[in-house]
Design a protein that fits this description.
With about 180 residues, the chain is α+β, with helices and mostly antiparallel strands. It has two domains: about 120 residues, Ribosomal protein L10, N-terminal RNA-binding domain (Alpha-Beta Plaits); about 40 residues, no CATH class. The protein contains seven helices and five strands; from the N terminus they run αβαβαβαββααα. The protein has a five-stranded antiparallel sheet with strand order 2-3-1-4-5, sandwiched between helices. Helix 1 crosses helix 3. The longest helix has about 35 residues. It is elongated, with a radius of gyration of 28 Å.
C-alpha cells in the first residue's frame, strides 16, 4: 500500500469514526465461506465491515478525536461501522457466538464513547432502531385505536342485542 492509499484509508476511517458507531473484532481464523457470509449479511444490515491496519486505524482515531481505542488495536482487527449502533453490535455478537475464532474486542458509540466487550454484548441485546420505532408507533396508535372503537362499541352492542332479542325472533302478529 503506497502513501496515497494510506492517506485515503485514514481519511475514510476518520470520517466514519466521527459520525457513526463501530464494533471492533478479531477476525483471525475465519474461513472464506464465513467471511463471505459476514460481508453479505453486513451489507444487508447496513453495516460497513472494514479491515484496516491497526496503525492506520490508530491515526484515524487520533484524527477523529477518539481516545481509548488504541487498547483494542492489537492483533488482527476489523471494524463494523453503522449508523445504528445496535445493528452492528447484534451482527458481530451473533458471529462471535457462531464462530469460535471471531472475537469481540470493543466498540465506539457516536460521540466518542468507547465500549469494552461486555458493553458491546449488552448493546447487542437491545432492540434495534427499526424495532424501537415500531414499538413507539404501536404505543402511539394503540390508544388512538381504542379511542376510535370506544364510541362505536355501545351502538354495536345495542344493535347485536336488539337483533337477537326474543321479541325480534317472533313472527309478526303471532300469538302464543
Amino acid at each position: 500500500m503506497n502513501r496515497e492509499e494510506k492517506v485515503r484509508v485514514i481519511e475514510s476511517l476518520t470520517a466514519k469514526l466521527r459520525v457513526g458507531s463501530a464494533v471492533l473484532v478479531d477476525y483471525q481464523g475465519m474461513d472464506v465461506a464465513r467471511s463471505t457470509d459476514l460481508r453479505r449479511r453486513s451489507r444487508e444490515s447496513g453495516v460497513d465491515f472494514v479491515v484496516a491496519k491497526n496503525t492506520l486505524t490508530r491515526r484515524a482515531a487520533d484524527g477523529a478525536g477518539v481516545e481509548g481505542l488504541s487498547e483494542f488495536l492489537v492483533g488482527p482487527t476489523a471494524l463494523a461501522f453503522s449508523e445504528d449502533p445496535v445493528a452492528s453490535a447484534k451482527l458481530m455478537a451473533e458471529f462471535a457466538d457462531q464462530v469460535e475464532s471471531f472475537v469481540l474486542k470493543g466498540g465506539l458509540l457516536e460521540g466518542g464513547r468507547v465500549l469494552d466487550e461486555a458493553e458491546v454484548v449488552a448493546l447487542s441485546k437491545l432492540p434495534g432502531r427499526e424495532q424501537l420505532l415500531a414499538q413507539i408507533v404501536g404505543g402511539i396508535s394503540s390508544p388512538l385505536t381504542g379511542l376510535v372503537t370506544v364510541p362505536t362499541t355501545p351502538s354495536r352492542v345495542w344493535s347485536w342485542r336488539w337483533a337477537r332479542s326474543p321479541s325480534r325472533s317472533r313472527a309478526p302478529n303471532s300469538h302464543r
